[in-house]
Amino acid sequence: MKVDVLLFASYADAIGASRVAVELPPDATVGDVLARVRQMASDKRVPEKPMVAVNKRYARDDQRVSATDEVAIIPPVAGG
Amino acid sequence: MRTAIVEHRIDACALLDEVAQDRNGASILFVGTVRDINDGSPVTALDYSAYTDMAETELAAIVLEASERWSTPDIVVEHRIGSLGLGDASVAIAVAHPHRGEAYEASRYIIEELKRRLPVWKREHYVDGRSEWVNAAG
To answer: What ipTM does the predicted assembly reach?
Structure first.
């Protein structure tokens, strides 16, 4: 399945896009999405353990994802 | 209660007016501003960016938590994104409550949770021309 992943801040800069489509097996998890995105940024210096949101909520590594989910990589936040 | 991610200047005093009610004996206004030095590097300006849809949802969730925990509906929070200069307000939190203790605690809770959870990022521009995402080293 193909999953759209939103990228922000250092991850968007490293990959050169604010959105990428990644191809994953049907039983893929949040951890699999993150591993794939980290491969794409492999030659760049990016935070190693960003959080991941699925449908605008923080998600655990073992949460399953589907093709219709909105997945986002959330590097360390700096609001306030 | 009202929360917003905005792209314009924050009028902090207007937030204070918004939470004013006769039942309240205490109003707290917290304003976060852009400072000139961060980790030893002189800062000239910064850009805030956000995952806006999620930031709006998360900010509303944080304020609802504070409202329920300290029993007050009189909370208004705005967080600004875009390009900000030195001294500009990036966030303003107005909390009003019948009593000061609860107002202080609710205000502190909101700023600390917001810093931990809000999907907002800050790129600082330094005097020497460099710019970096804050916390980008992870």
So the answer is: 0.94
